[in-house]
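Figure 6 in text form: structure in, sequence out.
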C-alpha cells in the first residue's frame, strides 16, 4: 500500500487547515489509522488515530479540542481537520497505518 498525505500549506496562527491521506494499492480496512508529525529538530510525535472500523478517536493532549480526525469509507481516505492552529503546530504531517505503512508527508506551516 502507498499512503499519500496532501493539503498542507501556510496559514496564520488561529487559522484552519485540513490535510488528507489517500491509500492506493490497499485499503485502511482492518487497521488503525492516524496522523503523526515531525518538526525540524524534534522527535516524531503522534497526533491522532482511530480505528477504521469505528470507535473513539485518540488525540495527543496538545491538539485536543482543536484537531479532528475523520475518515471516508467510499474514498478510502483519512482526514485531519486542524483549527485554531498555533506556530508550534508547524511540522511535516504524515498519515500511517498501524502496520507501519507510512506515506510521504505534507508540510504545515503556521505563522505567528
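Output sequence:
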Amino acid at each position: 500500500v502507498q499512503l499519500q498525505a496532501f493539503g498542507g500549506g501556510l496559514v496564520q496562527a488561529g487559522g484552519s487547515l485540513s490535510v488528507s491521506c489517500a491509500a492506493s494499492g490497499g485499503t485502511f480496512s482492518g487497521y488503525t489509522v492516524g496522523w503523526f508529525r515531525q518538526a525540524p529538530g524534534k522527535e516524531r510525535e503522534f497526533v491522532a488515530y482511530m480505528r477504521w472500523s469505528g470507535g473513539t478517536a485518540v488525540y495527543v493532549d496538545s491538539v485536543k479540542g482543536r484537531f479532528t480526525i475523520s475518515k471516508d469509507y467510499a474514498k478510502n481516505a483519512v482526514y485531519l481537520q486542524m483549527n485554531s492552529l498555533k506556530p508550534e503546530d508547524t511540522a511535516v504531517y504524515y498519515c500511517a497505518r498501524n502496520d507501519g505503512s507510512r506515506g510521504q508527508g505534507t508540510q504545515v506551516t503556521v505563522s505567528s
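Caption detail: The chain is about 0% helix and 50% strand.
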